[in-house]
Amino acid sequence: METATPAQRRVPRPRADAVRNRERIVTAAREMFVEFGPDVPLDEIARRAGVGNATVYRNFPDRDALVREVVCSVMDRTSEEAERALAETGDAFEALSRFVHAAADERISALCPMVSSTFDQCHPDLEAARERIEQLVASLMERARMAGQLRPDVAVGDLMIGVAQLSRPPAGTGCLSLDRFVHRHLQLFLDGLRAPARSPLPGTAATMEDLRQA
């Protein structure tokens, strides 16, 4: 009797309604994690998503899996926005600006701190999303620097700190009440990154490794 080879086996594609349900769960979880923090009850997330509790657990066996999916999806979407801007304009600084504003809209600064407190930071999905976003930002900054658009004394860590500090307070602490200030202050920050620099910066440029060791 012949057995099917790996190439012959077919992995069934998820049904469209199953994909939609998963997306609704992730969207609802993202909203509620921002509003209330990572300990919001999963049944409340299910209620907002319009699905049953069993559907949540079928997609995400535990809270850690759901938080990780939310954080990874946010990082992936901000990366995609920067890549789209670069493809549309060819302007590295414009792509960097779109990334910064998209990160604020995705509430990345409210969600990413959950990583250190809720689950394994070395999970391969998380590492892949984090590496993608860090490499993209580093590449955009280098291109903008070579084009004379970006001041020479800043690094990826400086940009990430600025986004985190200016975009949102920690999750569950009135994030939504500060929305009207966010993009205004982020644009001031971005203008400060442009070359030529108006004044020297104290200290040295912050790298992502500096942030991880802080």
Approximate strand percentage: under 5%
SSE string: HHHHHHHHHHH
Radius of gyration, in Å, reads: 20 Å
The count of DSSP E runs of length 2 or more, i.e. the number of strands, is 0
Structural class determined from secondary elements = mainly alpha
Question: What is the terminal separation in angstroms?
Answer: 60 Å
Helical residues, percent: 55-70%
Q: State mean pLDDT (0 to 100 scale).
A: 83
Q: What does the overall shape look like?
A: elongated
Largest β sheet strand count, sense and barrel closure: none
- Which residues form runs of ≥5 with pLDDT under 50? none
- Number of H- or I-type helical stretches: 11
Structure notes:
The chain is mainly α. The chain has helices spanning 16-36, 42-49, 53-59, 63-89, 92-105, 108-111, 114-118, 124-146, 156-167, 179-193, 208-213. The radius of gyration is 20 Å and the shape is elongated. It starts with 15 loop residues before the first helix and ends with a helix. The relative contact order is 0.12. The model has no long low-confidence stretch (mean pLDDT 83).
SSE diagram, text form:
Blueprint: H1 16-36, H2 42-49, H3 53-59, H4 63-89, H5 92-105, H6 108-111, H7 114-118, H8 124-146, H9 156-167, H10 179-193, H11 208-213
Helix pairs in contact: 1-2, 1-4, 4-5, 4-8, 5-8, 5-9, 5-10, 9-10
